[in-house]
Amino acid sequence: MAEITITKENFDDEVRNYKGTVLLDLWADWCGPCTLIAPIVKEIADEYEGKIKVGKINVDEQPELSAAFRCESIPMLVVVKDGVIHNMMVGYHQKPDIIKMLNI
Fold this sequence. Notes:
The chain has four helices and five strands. It has helices at 11-16, 32-47, 63-68, 95-102; strands spanning 4-5, 21-27, 52-58, 76-81, 84-90. The protein has a five-stranded mixed sheet. β4 and β5 form a beta hairpin. The radius of gyration is 12 Å and the shape is globular.
């Protein structure tokens, strides 16, 4: 499954009302650590296709969503299960740490 772009318009359908696990990556074009973690997030999206949904939130284009997650630093990864936030981590992390956070 390809990563999907999450916006305020599709947030309810893709995240809040989704029955299952969603990994959200809050990022920005100008963020160095965001560009480093992006290939890892894509790899997870590809490897766990059918088990999780992976969404990308550009904090510059979606300030309302960024504020809703109280995002003060990026990259920020958020795990949402059945519409409820279960875990978050901020900054660059290795793939094993992200997978452990997903608890799948």
